[in-house]
Every structure is written in C-alpha cells, then in structure tokens.
Fold this sequence. Notes:
By secondary structure, the protein is of the alpha+beta class. Among the domains are: about 250-325, no CATH class; about 460-560, Immunoglobulin-like, CATH 2.60.40.2550. Helices cover about 20% and strands about 45% of the residues. The strands form 6 sheets. Strands 15-14-6-5-4-3-2-1-32 form a 9-stranded antiparallel beta sheet, with helices on both faces. Strands 7, 16, 17, 18, 27, 28, 29, 30 and 31 form a 9-stranded mixed beta sheet that branches. Strand 9 and strand 10 form a beta hairpin.
Amino acid sequence: MRKSFSRTTAVLLAALLCASLLPQSVAADETTTDHFAFGMEYDWSNMNADFESMTGLPMDDILADVMQSADDAGIDLLLLEEITGTSSMVIDQYEDGTTMLDYDGSTVEVTKHVTELTVRHGDIMDYAMITEWSDARAGWDLTISTSMQGIFNIDAFYIEYRDSSGLLYGHDLEMSMEADQSFEFDLQGSLEADDGDSVMPLNIHMEMGVDYAVTNAESSILYTEPSDIFQQLSALEGGEDLGWEVGEDEVDYVHWEELDGSEWSCTWNSGYEEYECYHTPYDYYIYTAYCEYYSQFDTFYCTHDFGHDDDWENSLSWTHYYDGTSPNTGETAQPHGGDFSTTTGFDFELTGLPAEELGFPQGKWDVSATDSTTDTGSFSGEEYRCEMGIDLFEGTQMITTDGEQIEVMQAHTSPLPWGMTCHIANLFIHAFEGTPDAPTLADMLEDSTEEIAESFDSGDDYASEYGDNMYVELEAGNSDEIRVYVEAWGLDSDNQYELDLILEDSDGNTKDVDSAPIYNYDSESFYMQTDEWGEHCLDAILKDVTNGNTVEQMTLCANVPQEMEPSDLLVSIGEGFADSTLENVMENFANNLEYRMEDYEADFPYDDGDMYILWDSTNNMVVGFQMVVTSDDSNMWYTLIGPESDSYGTAPSQVSVTYFSGQQAIVQEAEIEDDSTFEDLVDLTQHNDDIIEDAIEEAIADYNDGDSEDSGEETEDDTEGGLLPFISPVLTMAMIAVAGLVASLKSRKD
C-alpha cells in the first residue's frame, strides 16, 4: 500500500530536530565497529546576533531607541535581559555484530543495527524592567524581574534485528528522559496618587517548578511476520513516496452502499483509481473508492471509508463487508509489554499580594503547594501501532564527512529509524500514563491547583441537615441575605410549636435572631444578616410551646463570603491614574517610537528555504539533515545548516548552529553524554547577570530609603555605557507592540 507522507509533518520533524526540541542523541562506546553519527549544537547566547543576521535589525540600537522614546515622553525605563545555555543533539548508528533471536518457536540469526540518541538542553534567563513615572495625580516606581531555568535530557538505546536479506524481525528500546523547569517572578515598588500622599507599596513574589523524569523504561517489539520495509526502501526511486503501517486500522464505523447487481455493474477505473458503477435502468454513473461483490446475493457493497488506494482494484473478491474487518491492516506486531519507572514533582508559592487593599485579611493570599511522587510499573499484552512514511526527491548530491564523500538524496521523513520513532512514542506514553492508581503529572497539577484554590476559600457557603422532625438548609450567598429554609413534620396538631433561629460568627458573637410559629407539615424561608464574613453557625431550635420542651435542635455552619471591596487607598490610586496625564504620556511614547522606528527596515537575507533529511540509499539509512535557503536576487541555493555539499554553497548570512558529522559527532557525544544536571549543562561563568542584580538592588534600596530620585538617570547612563548584557528580540518586539497599540488606539479615537 502506498501512502504519501505529509511534507508539513516531515519539515516540522526536521525543524524540531534543528531546534533541539526533538530529542535525538548518541552515546558512542569504545568503537570497534564503524559508527556513523551526526548532530548539532546551539549556544543560546548567540540568539541576538542570529536574529540580527536573519532580519537585518540591530537589536541593541532598537532597544536603546525604545528606552529613549520612553525617556522623551517622561518615563524612566530600563530593560535588561541575559540568557545562557546550550542545546546539543547527536544520532549515532552502527552494527553491533550478530545474535540468535528466538522467533516464532525457533531461532534465527540476525544482525543488530544500533541507534543511540542523546539530547542535552539547559538554559537560564534573567530579565528585569525598572521603570518610574509620575505627575501630580498618579505615578509608579516599579521593578519587575523574572528568572527561568530548565533542563531537558533524553537518552535512548535502540536495537533493530534484521536478517541477511534485510527482513526486520523486531526491535528493543531502553530510554530515559528528564525535564525540569523553574520560574520566579518579583514585582517590587509602589503605586501612588495625590502627589505622593497616597502610596501603595508592592512586594509580590511567585515561584513555580515542575519536574518530570522517566528514570528508566524499556520494551521489546516482535512482528507477527518479518517486515520487508527495508527491501521496499531499497527499491524506492527518486520522486516516489512510501508509507508504512503497523497495526490494524481501527474503523469505528463504515457506511456501505448496497447496489443491486441486477441493476448495477462496478468496474475499476485505472485512470481515476476508483470504481465506476453504472446504473443500467437510469443510465448514470457513481464513483466510489472501494467495492466488494457477493455473487450469492448478486450485490455490490461499496464505501469511501477505507480511503483511496490502488490496491483496491482487487477488492471485488474480498469479504471485509461480510467479516466486519478493514483492508487497511498493514503489518502487525505481537502483543508486547515493558517496564518503567518515573518521578514527578510540582511546587508553587505566592506571597505579598496586596490582600488588605483587595478586602482580604493580611496573609490570606500567601499560598503554597508542593507534591511529588514516584511510580514503578509494567504493562503487557498491549497492541503496537506505527505509521511512518517518506517522500524521496529526485537527484543526488555528495556530502563530505571525515574527508570522505557520501552520495545522498533529499527526503522528508523522520531523522530516526521508523521503528525507533514509533517505539519511543509508544514507550513514553505507557510510562507517562503510569500504573492505574499512580498520580500522573496532570493529576498532580490538578490537585495542586485545587489545593491553591481551597486556600483562597474559607469554606462552603451551603449546609443542610435532616432530623427526626425537621429539615434545615443554610445558604449564605452574601452577608445581607442569608437564607434559612425549614421543613417540619410529625408534630401533634393539637399543640403549638415555635422555631427559634440564632446566627453566630466564628467568635460566638450573635449576629441575628428570628423566631416564628411552625405547624405540622409546614415549610418556611427566613432571611438573616451579619456584618461579618467567614464561618457562621446557625442554631435551629424547634420547641413545643404547649408542653414547654424542646422537640429538636441542630447546628449548621456555612461560610459567608466576603465581598471584594477595594480599599480607599486603591480607589484613590485608580482615580488618580484616571485623572492623570498617562494617556498623553503613552501617546507621546508611541509617537516618539514610531518616529525612531522609521529608520529601521527589516532586510531578510533569504526569501525561501526547506529542511531535508539526507538519505543514503545504498545503506538504507539517514546520514544527516540539511536546511537550504535561497534569495530572489541570487537565484542560488545555499546550505544554512548541514554538511558540506557539492550542490550547495555556504550561506552568506549564517546562524550559530554547529553541525557535526562523523568523528566530530562522536567526539561531541562523548563530551555531553555525562552532562545531566543544570550545573553540567549551563556554564554559569558565562552568565553575566551582575548588571541586572546591581540594577535591581539599587532600585530596591531606593524603595527602602523612600527616595527614588535620579534612579532613572543612573540606569540610563548604564545603558549608554554599553552595559546591556543581552537584548531579547522577543522583549524588544513586545515593547514596540505596546507602543504600536497605543498609537493604534489613538488613531481610532481620532
């Protein structure tokens, strides 16, 4: 069966590969056999230079103009960012001798084709925005800072078993993965109004971390029949495509068209590659992708639900309609199992929100949640499914590796062996799902979110209780309308009864009382009030007035929610900003920035590009990847990322991706394979965040001293002195977007 492999999917896979987001790697052992390895590395401290290289925009100059535009509008603004880290990937492939494989009750000699993968990623980013502005009505003096750091590692060891004729019998996989990401946010300073008479200090801190690791996972796949996929790949010519499916195609529902054979005839139209069915009585045609004919019924059963395939030419004699099966079976694998162990952790902390100004008690909003778990388990009897493909392009080129040339073809496909690509996904899914009762990362995040939400909530605002003679509901929607609903039954109709209601706060202070006569099979609603919020308890007492005794008494408690009423200070600050000149200031900022941005024009060096996997048709393996680019001016194609090639020159504008192949990749693998911790992966000596820390400390000191004068001038001098450690393209574009939005809103208003 032929199936076109999605070009978009292929390009995406390759792009992810180059961005080091698709984990691929290699760990070469003491080489006694020929290894073929390739990979790449990217240094994130070069991102600014690469952005300028690919856009022609000088980010340092642009950011300086952003800050100067703010300064001309009366806003002191300093933006600082530093990012450090590396992403490395290597794929190593080699043969590791032969072995005897137990297969279908016998043994067969197979060659072990090994692919090793190693990916290492670590980064840290520090960011700060220090800004000050005020007029006679309102103002701010703020320092916003964030810090993010993380790692992402994958190791995989894959063995593919093929016999001397190239038939694939199965494959084994061992893998591990570690992902750890942490984030910190701080907002310090103040908002003010009334010419500085009303000041609201701010000192908000938040941190969050998520870590997940597959410490070890392994499984084995054996095919029901040896697969000839490598023989099919060997026969593939340039300009052709090939699809490969493992596992039975699941069709939830098939709509069959029933055609009476006495009136219809269906024949295969090779030009359209579908069936042409002719209705004799009314002289018209219908076209359908798939048909079966049952002579005993003299009936055609046709459908579109199996898709289009040139193999359906032979389907008239098939019996999938009768059997309730599908022709899209592909190859099949035996039910398989495996083992895994995982660790998961999550933590969250939030402090310093201005709770009092929002109407909450001090400390009410200081929350935290922490959770961690480990899981070890296994699975068995699971179906294995895989769907892969390749688009192979015409033409060849010679690439150079270790001084030797290799003839390759361009393709859109996975950079990994197909079995490995699906095997990794299969095993990871089983490990992530975990054992039936073990909490997953999603469960942990959900539980932590609920825990945090509960910390903001004082309790349920509803309570109810059944007694022998009375039912009571307490519903505390708000402090001014607390509803009490009462039902009574089983009372002596000759006696008089009274219901007493007493509402108390959490300190035992009576907030409201009520009473009323009540009768047998009676129901009444009462409305009570309180001037407090939080937990309140209701005493409901049913008395027999005639006999002077208590028939029944119950106590119900519910939470009276607090209505969020901003403080006078917060209201004053909001009114101050509404009456301030801030709108004019932001319009001036936008106009200043628009004027300065007129001097910049993006100059992209390339107008088109594509990503290819490099296919060695002689050895039926991927031997590299390649990103090629072109410009309308040159009408030539260049290699932006990839090996040296006789078909493409070196791109005139480069990015800081280092491509490895051959022995270079082996050396790179050896250097990174033991690096697993954040300290291993990130060279903190290259992370120059001293300027950021000094600027934050200086600003905070001003807050503590109650004096923030001239802080803007000092930070501007630092900027002009070339002390900015790193200018983020994302940060700069965000600032430009903010200013542009203000300008847009102004134009709409005009």
